[in-house]
Amino acid sequence: MQKFKSVDDLVNQLKPTEPVYCIRKKSIQLASKFFQNKFPGKVLYAVKTNPHPIVLKTLVDSGINNFDIASIKEIEAIKKINPEAKCSFMHTVKSREDINEAYFKHGIKAFSLDTKDELIKILESTNKANDLELHVRVAVSNEHAEIDLSKKFGALTSEAIGLLRLTKQYAKKIALSFHVGSQCMHPISYTKGISELKYIIKKTKITPDIINIGGGFPTIYPDLIPQSLNIYFKEIKKGLAELNLEKLPDIICEPGRAIVAESGSTIVRVNLRKKQKLYINDGTYGTLFDAGVPNIVYPSRLITSSRVVSKKLTSFDFFGPTCDSMDYMKGPFVLPNNIKENDYIELGQLGAYGLTFRTQFNGFYSDNIFEVEDDPIMTMYNKEALKEFLVA
Fold first, then answer.
1. Which residues contact residue 361 at a Cβ distance below 8 angstroms, ignoring those fewer than 6 apart?
2. Radius of gyration over alpha carbons of the chain, in Å?
């Protein structure tokens, strides 16, 4: 993979006519080390967030060897990087064929479920294996999340009580899990989730071998500035202490966005300006899906070489290159007022989901991916953390 010192160097040398995606390995290493050193338990990277081989290799080299996967393809991607890595099948709805292949071909023992029917599928598809690690996922409030996952996943607390009792009979290790929703903006959500587990533990008198607090850890965007992740971890420790258990179970989490978001950015070019509307060469059918559907506002900056840049800033909304009106990103994206056709813009925080959501709709697709060594446009990880965690 070709490497550049900075995004500006890349643009000045290549003058790309198609969108360009950038990966920052140092950013991945920093965030990975931060979680490994600060989180009170084991870190499972959520592969769906960014499964690019360079990203996965960087994570493995940084010390992460446990992965939250949701498909056979994701298992295969991890095993290519590190055959010894532990994969946990955390999707609560799986086909029998995928369960069978995961267990018998890839040696996967850990499976998530939120219904009795899924438990039956797992048991029958593994020939009633006696070495399973089964995670009962509980639905908890997603009130502070930008993207609500609770409508699709998780058993109600009243259902989880009976499901935990039943699942324990067939599990070598039993786990309770929850997810507070994607881009969770308040750490109290984790305390509330843990309190739901406390109620279930009290009712069933079953102390799980593992407590999985899921993902949802936020990254930083111009209009979404969360509290420090240290405060999230402090809140989690507080919730775990309030379980009042004689011995605390193993604790795991499944971060994705918070680890890789800052590492990726996309370089786009302006095709046309209509007043405060910019028509760019990437969009919601490409790497910018999150800017359209959940309306996440990415940090943006104009890339210039020599011309004068206006000090006056203007809020723009974007349209992508496809012949579809849904290819629209409301923003607002704040850029210099004199931006014009053929100017380049860097959009940050695209390490999470930017690559995974790309399509070839309308024939617009770019697979131009390069490594850059400059800093992200925005970061939650400061220079002191860099010195603390990145050892040469």
1. 285, 322, 324
2. 22
